Amino acid sequence: MPSARYLTALRLGLAAVAAVVLAGCASGPKLFVNEDPGAEFGSYRTFSFSTPLGTDSPQYSSMLSTFLKDATRRELESRGYRYVESDPDLLVNFYVKTKEKITSTSVPTGPAYGAGYYGYRGMNYGVWTGYETQVSQYTEGTLNIDLVDTRLKRLVWEGVAVGRVRDNIRENLKPAVDDVVAQVFTKYPHRAP
Question: In 10 A of CB 143, how many CB atoms?
């Protein structure tokens, strides 16, 4: 029969593996891209921002919108696009949504020898005696970046990032926005001619 020290070490090892697996899942946002296959990306040279943006209030522009515009402008200009005030080829818009989510994780609490169905497993090998369930609540955020062909008035590219919104992101919003916008644009393969 295994010692109590062995069972404790096994439980701690399983908990550590679960923590590493969960941390790996939370390493960054999930990115999704949709593109209009009929869009002529080679013809787009200029861009501007929608008014009002989906991240603005009808009465004022938000700080989030300012950060998103700065990061997106930097990404598009690095790809050769030129910002213009009027008559752009592409119009950029944003949408942000947050949702409270709950997740649970179950890990085995460890083997017990001599247990099983009416003892049929006997002392040959251990069986799991139960599971410990941990429940946590978190905020999931979704950012959409839309590029609209102004001539056709049609969405031609959409980049989406979905991930956990942690307190350190809320406290340092500008660098977090810069990072997620840069990640979304890694999925944008086009350049201005």
Answer: 22
Instruction: Read off the amino acid at residue 165.
Output: V
Domain total of the chain: 1
Domain carrying residue 67: 28-107+137-185
Low-confidence stretches of the chain (pLDDT < 50) are: 1-26
- Sheet with 82-83, strands from edge to edge, namely 30-35, 154-164, 131-149, 90-108, 46-49, 82-83
Tell me the pTM.
Answer: 0.70
Residues 25-40 have pLDDT tens digits of 346 899 999 999 999 9
